[in-house]
Design brief:
The complex is a heterodimer of chains A (about 700) and B (about 450). Chain A is built from 21 helices and 26 strands. Chain A is of the alpha+beta class and about 700 residues long. Chain A has 3 domains: about 40-165 and about 190-240, Metalloenzyme, LuxS/M16 peptidase-like (Cytochrome Bc1 Complex, Chain A, domain 1); about 260-470, 2-Layer Sandwich (Cytochrome Bc1 Complex, Chain A, domain 1); about 485-685, Clam (outer membrane lipoprotein receptor (LolB), chain A). In chain A, the strands form 3 sheets. Chain A has a 13-stranded antiparallel beta sheet with strand order 19-18-17-16-15-14-26-25-24-23-22-21-20. A 7-stranded mixed beta sheet of chain A has the order 9-10-8-11-7-12-13, with helices on both faces. In chain A, strands 1-2-6-3-5-4 form a 6-stranded mixed beta sheet, with helices on both faces. In chain A, α2 (about 80-90) packs across α8 (about 200-210) and α12 crosses α16 (about 420-430). The termini of chain A are far apart. With about 450 residues, chain B is an alpha+beta fold. Chain B is about 45% helix and about 20% strand. Chain B has helices at about 1-15, 75-80, 90-100, 125-135, 140-160, 170-175, 190-195, 200-210, 225-235, 285-295, 305-310, 345-360, 365-380, 385-400, 405-415, 415-425; strands at about 30-35, 40-45, 50-60, 105-110, 115-120, 215-220, 260-265, 270-275, 315-325, 330-335, 435-440. Chain B has a 6-stranded mixed beta sheet, sandwiched between helices. In chain B, strands 7-11-8-10-9 form a 5-stranded mixed beta sheet, with helices on both faces. In chain B, α4 packs parallel to α9. Classes of the chains: A alpha+beta (about 700), B alpha+beta (about 450). The interface between A and B is large, with 94 and 103 residues.
Chain lengths: ~700, ~450
């Protein structure tokens, strides 16, 4: 008997184990769907018109206040930036507290208060709630605008603009705004150093006095507080805010371009192209098409979507490719974006258009549609974790005059979206014939291939601020029989011929200039094929040195010594060649004759070199004399003139060299050239 | 770029600093934790307010486990973890998550790699199945490796090479460390990303992606017992690793001379970076140093902001943050100059603030302010289930004490005014620091 019981136990335990053994080949099924409900909130309005929402949430003991001023956007024109500055100026002191006192008071309670042109955000832990409101109210009702603080903010803004000049993403975004909306629309305006300079204290005061009114404002209170507690506090701290009449502004609606237009911002040192395909879209928030087109856009380019699968997972062109289709009260937009390596810029643009056309032309398979509907359903549920989401729902409904049950019905309406809805949204809102194709990148390398792939010669050039550049006048056609090889051959024969040039094994060049009260001297020693020494001195003191021997190079300077590595090393090795023009094919340099440009008023052939390291430089050869007159590299431009034959060598060298870079230029005279001087290898020794 | 750098630093402050609170006010985080027989550590936190759940796995492996000729390997590997498994085909990983209405992603730091799914709570089992799949049997092939090799290189270009000041962390760590693997950053170098092979990835998985090196942390709308059953079902029979886990034992020798260098970048405004060697996270001095950074740059009344940015107008921003790590890390500061201000000028202005905290005790009022700031950050940070899951896992793998999520604040509150001055004196010395100037390439001769 005992035995039987034991064996029964054994059977039980085996059964238990087999239950626990997972069948991993099958994806687990979801449990019953949880009920998704949007947290309830309370709302009330003060007599002055301020509309208040209270979203109670006790997860963390904190309360936050978002005040939103809902005025029409303002066209700032030559004063672009003043609205933003006025918003920041609000935080720089009140009639009761200087900026220092205010900063101290906010930090002391461990809180935050920030202001901008469309409102004030404040938060702190619950125990400091009333102190926080006191400070926020003081900022809102009693601001003290001073010239001193405005000047500081202008200086900051100008520095910030300067810092963005080298940020390709910031450049792309600025220029794209201009393309999408035009400079006559508030969305298309960009502040610049100049327009910020124009901003006066009065403009800022006027902005505050005109637009900061309770009757166009919303206040969302979120966190560890309820309406019973909040209401008397809000009346106390915001009840005295005076209402007023606020001017409305209307603007013409920007339209998509008549045909596809390539817009280029040339950034010669880019290692990647920032691509934005975009056009304005007239779609208002809360309208019928919004959810359908949201599903459509998610299939195309939201998260891991068709664009992501194609450009990243299939082709590995990019770290990510995405699209957005955003409704807006004034004017919305479509945008497809990717940052890709230079060489695949055209292919990436091709694939973006391929996917745009595919979702227009073919009905989306049901399985794929369900996937994205499930995803959007989940994302909506996840977003409800944050009480700020509920606050933004309440405010969106008010300011966009959406139906009050828009968000309650959201999941139901999402579930109803069909494959036909997706295709008709794609046909209505995707415009593969009417888009701007903006690329911030290396123009030389990408433009010819882009025009081919897009089958358009519609190319416009912009500077990093979004100003149109007229480039067509500068370029001239190259005669059909001229090639880069011929240009280089003519140069070699112009300086003395291949035979003489090949005999040069070492070259020492000394150049000298008077600049900014200093005597600058640079001595360059080259020894074929891989030794180089550049010695820079100022007023006779050795200032900087760079040495290359074989595969190692080092820079010595008063600021420290640095090993030269990677691309930079490869580039220095290239520089060590005395006449690299004869060895381009051996050195693996790609040579391309790009066009004709003027140098010092005379036409010159422009030859673009791409080194194996990926670096590139451009040489200019005078058409008439054949001589090299200019070289453009990443950081500097060098101009050569006064070519004279060096006695004994039979070779012509330039005796005047002008170097430009960093907004400065220095004129050097050549003191001497020495050819085939016996250079001891010791001088190239790299001492640590 | 500014936005990016600030985000980077923001993230760092959150993850590395951990931080603060007063017991009276914090909403205590309750959790259950245990080990499976195979060594997998499990942490469960239940919060039923929203029907969602965060499923996460933290592996105790990061870029410091790489060899010097395979930098970037751990992060590259992280990409491969999305390639598929025995029962998940290549390219399906993201799709399965999407289909469940989930968000998922991963990230790699010096010390650990973190994977997560945030799902509607009825999809908990799916999240566990997915993580178990790739822990148990990752499937990678050469197509996947070659694709991700290019993707990782584009990630590097986009996030670092093509970004103004994008090399800041990489350069700082490269200059600060001579022997410790912190001398390279998780993104690694392109040449080694090119060299990594399929068989090396398989070995890496065998060594580090084993249950005894992982912490499964789950937070959200769960039933504790049901969750335990699911975990048993999917994780219990995954076997331990067969190799002993290699962890770097290298100790960085003390720095004895100031390191100074210039980096030329595609930028307009010069920047100055200071990095001082600091002790490992969790040490008493690291808490004091963390509070010192609050004093220096948290809020508009903070010393660097008030003096260097607001009063003297030398900088667009000036920030201090503790990059505390598992092994000794760096106390970092940097500033980006305003137009027309040289790097030398800015360096002097920041240096003056450093000298002040070394010479004088901070006032009682400032001390209270710093404590209030730290307290406020500590008690308000646990606002999302995903954040809670990650924080619990961090405390477990670094300190073996998940309950620090509730108690670590007391370590900050123990720091005295004198301690702040003392750590400034002890660590913020010239011999112990790296100073980098970021200058526009146009100034390069």
């Amino acid at each position: 008997m005992k035995k039987i019981v034991l064996s029964l136990f054994l059977i039980f335990s085996i059964a238990l184990i087999s239950v626990a053994q997972a069948d991993r080949s099958k994806k687990p099924l979801p449990g019953p769907a949880p009920k998704i409900s949007i947290a309830k909130f309370d709302t009330f309005r003060l007599e002055n018109g301020l509309k208040v929402f209270v979203i109670e949430n006790h997860k963390v003991p904190m309360v936050s206040y978002s005040l939103i001023i809902d005025n029409d956007p303002i066209l700032e024109k030559e004063n672009a930036g003043y609205v933003e500055l006025a918003g920041s100026l609000l935080r720089t002191g009140t009639k009761n507290l200087s900026k220092d006192q205010l900063d101290e008071a906010v930090d002391f309670i461990g809180g935050n208060i920030s202001t901008n042109s469309s409102g004030i955000f404040a938060n702190a832990i619950k125990k400091h709630n009333e102190r926080l409101l006191e400070l926020m109210s003081d900022i809102l009702l009693n601001p003290n605008f001073t010239q001193e603080e405005l000047d500081k903010l202008k200086k900051q803004k100008i520095s910030e603009l300067a810092s963005q000049k080298d940020d390709p993403a910031a450049i792309a975004s600025r220029v794209n705004n201009v393309l999408l909306y035009g400079k006559e629309h508030p969305y298309g305006e960009n502040a610049s150093e100049e327009t910020v300079g124009n901003v006066t204290l009065n403009m800022c005061k006027n902005f505050y006095n005109t637009y900061y009114k309770p009757n166009i404002a919303y206040l969302a209170i979120v966190g560890d507080i309820n309406v019973v507690e909040a209401k008397p506090l809000i009346e106390k701290y915001f009840g005295k805010w005076k209402k007023g009449i606020v001017t409305a502004h209307k603007y013409r609606t920007p339209l998509p371009p008549l045909s596809n237009t390539i817009a280029i911002v040339d950034r010669p040192n880019s290692v990647q192209s920032n691509i934005i395909v975009s056009y304005p879209v007239d779609m208002k928030p809360g309208t019928e098409d919004v959810i359908k087109s949201r599903v459509m856009n998610n299939i195309l380019g939201g998260g891991t979507s068709r664009l992501f699968d194609n450009l990243r997972e299939k082709h590995a062109y990019t770290y990510g490719a995405y699209s957005q289709l955003s409704p807006d009260k004034l004017i919305g937009h479509f945008m497809a974006t990717a940052e890709v390596r230079n060489a695949v810029t055209d292919s990436s643009v091709y694939q973006i258009f391929y996917e745009i056309n595919r979702i227009r032309d073919e009905k989306v398979p049901q399985e794929e549609l369900d996937l994205y509907k499930n995803y959007l359903n989940g994302i909506f549920s996840l977003s409800l974790e944050s009480p700020q989401t509920v606050a933004s729902f309440a405010i969106n409904i008010e300011r966009n005059k959406m139906s009050s049950d828009y968000y309650t019905n959201y999941l139901k309406n999402l579930a109803a979206v069909s494959a036909e809805d997706v295709q008709s949204a794609a046909k209505k809102y995707l415009r593969p014939e009417n888009a701007y194709i903006l690329v911030v990148g290396k123009a030389d390398e990408i433009v010819p291939k882009l025009t081919k792939v897009l089958k358009t010669s519609n190319v416009e050039y912009y500077d990093s601020k979004g100003n149109y550049i007229n480039i067509s006048e500068k370029t001239k056609a190259i005669p059909g029989d001229i090639t880069a090889e011929k240009v280089i051959k003519k140069y070699i024969s112009a300086i003395g011929g291949e035979e003489k040039v090949l005999k040069v094994n070492t070259l020492v060049k000394k150049i000298k200039a008077n600049a900014q009260g200093m005597v600058l001297e640079i001595e360059t020693s080259q020894k074929s094929p891989d030794k180089l020494l550049i010695d820079v001195s100022a007023n006779g003191n050795h200032f900087q040195k760079q040495v290359l021997k074989g595969d190692t190079a080092k820079t010595f300077s008063p600021m420290g010594n640095m090993d030269v590595k990677g691309t930079e090393l490869a580039d220095i090795k290239f520089q060590a060649n005395i006449f690299p023009e004869l060895k381009y094919s051996v050195l693996g340099v790609n040579v391309k004759l790009s066009d004709i440009e003027e140098v010092n008023g005379k036409d010159a052939y422009k030859v673009v070199l791409t080194l194996p390291s990926g670096s590139s430089m451009t040489d200019y050869y005078d058409i008439e004399s054949g001589l090299k007159v200019k070289t453009v590299e990443k950081q500097a431009t060098t101009l050569y003139s006064e070519y004279k034959e060096l006695a004994g060598s039979g070779i012509k060298f330039p005796y005047k060299i002008k170097i430009e870079g960093g907004g400065q230029s220095v004129d050097f005279e050549v003191s001497s050239y020495e050819v085939n001087k016996d250079l001891n290898d010791n001088i190239f020794e790299i001492k640590q | 770029m500014l936005r990016k750098t600030i985000l980077l630093i923001g993230a760092c402050v959150i993850t590395c600093m951990g931080s603060t609170l007063l017991k009276a006010q914090i909403n205590k985080i309750d959790f259950t934790e245990y080990d499976l027989e195979n060594g997998l550590h499990v942490i469960l936190h239940k919060d039923n307010t929203t029907p969602i759940v965060a499923v996460s796995i933290m592996y105790h492996v990061g870029s410091k486990n790489e060899s010097a000729d395979r930098t970037g390997f751990a992060h590259f590997f992280e990409h491969l973890m999305f390639e598929g498994s025995e029962n998940i085909k290549r390219g399906e990983f993201f799709k399965i998550a999407q289909n469940a209405g989930a968000e998922n992603n991963a990230n790699t730091t010096f010390d650990r790699t973190f994977y997560y799914e945030i799902l509607p709570s009825n999809q908990l089992e799916l999240g566990l199945w997915m993580e178990a799949e790739r822990l148990r049997h990752l499937r990678i092939d050469s197509t996947g490796v070659e694709t991700q090799r290019k993707v990782v290189k584009e990630e590097r270009s986009q996030s670092y090479d093509n970004q103004p000041y994008g090399s800041l962390m990489e350069q700082t760590f490269a200059h600060a460390y001579k022997v410790h693997p912190y001398k390279w950053t998780p993104i690694g170098s392109t040449q080694y990303i090119d060299k990594a092979t399929l068989s090396e990835f398989i070995e890496f998985h065998d060594m580090y992606y084993v249950p005894e090196n992982a912490t499964l942390s789950i937070a959200g709308d769960i039933d504790i017992n049901k969750t335990k059953d699911f975990i048993k079902k999917y994780f219990e029979d995954i076997s331990r690793g067969k190799k002993s886990i290699v962890r770097p034992k290298v100790v960085e020798p003390p720095q004895t001379n100031e390191v100074r260098d210039i980096v030329y970048d595609n930028i307009q405004l010069p920047a100055v970076v200071f990095a001082y060697h600091m002790p490992a996270q969790g040490t008493e001095d690291s808490y004091a140093l963390s509070m010192l950074t609050t004093l220096l740059s948290d809020g508009q009344s903070s010393r660097l902001y008030k003096s260097v940015v607001d009063k003297q107008q030398k900088a667009l921003n000036a920030v201090a943050f503790p990059f505390a790590l598992e092994d000794p890390g760096l106390f970092m500061m940097y500033g980006i100059s305003n137009v027309g201000v040289t790097a030398e000028d800015l360096e002097k202005a920041i240096d003056q603030e450093i000298e002040k905290v070394k010479e004088n005790l901070i006032t009682d009022n400032e001390y209270q302010k710093v404590r209030n700031k730290v307290e406020s950050e500590f008690i308000t940070r646990n606002s999302t289930v995903a954040g809670i899951a990650e924080t619990l896992a961090n405390y477990h793998i670094y300190f073996g004490d998940s309950n620090l999520i509730n108690t670590e604040i007391s370590r900050y509150m123990k720091v005295k005014r004198e301690d702040i001055r003392n750590v400034a004196k002890k660590y913020l010395t010239k011999e112990n620091r790296v100073v980098l100037y970021y200058l526009p390439k146009t100034q390069q001769k």
